[in-house]
Amino acid sequence: MFRNRATKIIATLGPASTSEDVIEALHHAGADVFRLNFSHGSYEDHAARLTSIRRIEDRCDHPIGVLLDLQGPKLRVSTFAGGSAELTAGAAFVFDRDPALGDATRVCLPHPEIFAVVSPGDVLLVNDGQLRFKVTATANDRIETEALVSGIISDRKGVNVPSAALPLPALSEKDKKDLAFGLDIGVDWVALSFVQRPEDVEEARALIGGRAKLMAKIEKPSALDCLDEIVALADGIMVARGDLGVELPPEEVPAIQKRIVRQCREAGKPVVVATQMLESMIKSPAPTRAEASDVATAVYDGVDAVMLSAESASGQYPVEAVAMMDRIIQRTEADPLQRTLMNAVATRHDATSTDAIGAAIQSVASVLSVAATITYTTLGATAFRVAHERPDSPILSLTPNRAVARQLALLWGVSSQETADAKSAEDMVEKASAAAKHAGCYQAGKPLIVVAGMPFGTPGSTNLLRVVWPE
Fold first, then answer.
1. Is 106 or 433 the better-scoring residue by pLDDT?
2. In whole numbers, what is the pLDDT of the chain averaged over residues?
3. CA 373 to each of CA 213, 300, 435: distance values in angstroms, whole numbers, following the listed order
4. pLDDT tens digits along 426-455
5. Which residues participate in catalysis according to the annotation?
6. Max Cα separation, the chain?
7. DSSP letter (8 states) at residue 409
8. Mean pLDDT (whole number) for 129-134
């Protein structure tokens, strides 16, 4: 049941990984959580993939997490006569509100929010930054620019405005419909794209209504200005380096990634690093050495999960990409230096019994060679806290709630089982021992740490730590 690693793998599903056989192969290769990217695909596609995941879950007899990734507000240019136009560096180019087809001198930009915030000197980025335009003059319905690079601009390419916080809601009408659909079919996590302010997280949480965990994607520079508040409000954070890398100079992204990971680790919030981790494996059966180092760096920092995007969704080698990521993680975690570097960041502790128990686990494990830490949890809070202590032993979470068990699949080091609440201390020990044997982490001569709350089944009551010696 336990992987030979603590860091989890999120694999995106798409055209290359639609069949149930491929999804199952991805899971066996190492995928712990599957991402449904609602920027692409139909509701029928996503529902079919989730149905396949649940069938695989039943066959494998352990929970698999599903992450719904919302598209977020997408800013795009309109269309061109002939589908595209060729631009020359230094030439004038206008973005306006005229719906007429564009050409080499102008194009319609159907987003009044951009016109409201840009000013001379700002830079507009098109097509993931491949085209850059310096703003020279603005009006209510016209942005005059100078093309900074030569290239082809074509229909519906995305637009980024890195210098401004746009007055856009994080949830578009499409996102709200997608979110309702995803919650209805039973996703476990929701990733909120293009978060700019704490209010974006609050709006999404109100709509989710406790039916899934909420992950805020950090991909806008404006989010960095209020990162503490966003981390506090979200259940987890994703370092989404795609758009973040477009809107910021590339040399700034590594330090920002480190900062976000550190803040999440200190706050005890799950953190995921995503985008272009094994990008070359979209077309190649092996990654570059730099990509392997990129994955390893995230593991050394102690992230909860690393994510594959196009590599598993539309690449030529989806299963090989997951297997490669699994091998990189295992090799990195086997390095004694990994735990030293990971433990350089300590989780802050609040004055609660749950945090006190979590801190005590490390003290017990430093004296005893522990086979596993077993948590009883109703809503997942105990498992979240124990995971972010990063104990040396595997973590086995027992919960009566299948949805909670699936949510915990994303957490560092945690494996879950759905089981009934204990009725007494003796029943707790029996259930914990049986679960450890079932999971393959019961070792003669090595104790188990069992963490629970009394009275049993009461959320937020973690107040018991017991050391159980195998008979």
1. 106
2. 93
3. 23, 22, 11
4. 888 888 888 888 888 878 788 999 988 777
5. 35, 76, 217, 275
6. 80
7. G
8. 94
Residues 183-228: pLDDT tens digits?
A: 999 999 999 999 999 999 999 999 999 999 999 999 988 899 999 9
DSSP letters of 121-181? T-EEEETTTTEEEEEEEEETTEEEEEE-S-EEEETT-BEE-TTS-----SS-HHHHHHHHH
Say how far residue 30 (Cα) sits from the centre of its chain: 16
Count the neighbouring beta carbons within 10 Å of the beta carbon of residue 15.
12
Give the three-state DSSP class for 455: coil
- Cα separation of 388 and 358, whole Å? 9
CA distance 280 to 291: 8
| pTM, to two decimals | 0.92
| The two three-digit tokens of residue 30, written as one number | 């190492």
Query: Which backbone phi and psi does 65 adopt, to 5 degrees?
Result: -85, 150
Instruction: Find out whether 254 and 241 touch, Cβ atoms under 8 Å.
Output: no
Beta bridge partners of 151: 87
The torsion defined by the Cα of 217, 218, 224 and 229, in degrees rounded to 10, comes to 20
The residues near 93 (Cβ < 8 Å, ≥ 6 apart) are 87, 104, 105, 106, 107, 133, 145, 146, 147
Other Cβ atoms closer than 10 A to 215: 26
Separation of alpha carbons 200 and 257, rounded Å: 21
| CA pair distance 42, 373, nearest whole angstrom | 41
What stretches of 309-438 adopt beta strand conformation (E)? 372-376, 395-399, 414-418
In the block, residue with structure tokens 């960041």: 345
Q: Which amino acid is at 172?
A: S
169 Cβ contact list (under 8 Å, min separation 6) = 73, 200, 203
Euclidean distance between CA atoms 142 and 85, whole angstroms: 19
Structure tokens of 282?
Answer: 């979209």
**Contact by Cβ (8 Å): 102, 78:** yes
Residue whose token pair is 């989806």: 318
**Is the pLDDT at 174 greater than 80, yes or no?**
yes
DSSP string covering 19-36: SHHHHHHHHHHT--EEEE
CA 46 → CA 18, 137, 215, 296, distances in Å?
A: 9, 44, 19, 31
* Sheet with 92-96, edge to edge strand ranges: 106-108, 92-96, 142-147, 131-139, 123-126, 159-160
Digit-coded pLDDT (tens) for 320-340? 999 999 999 999 999 999 999
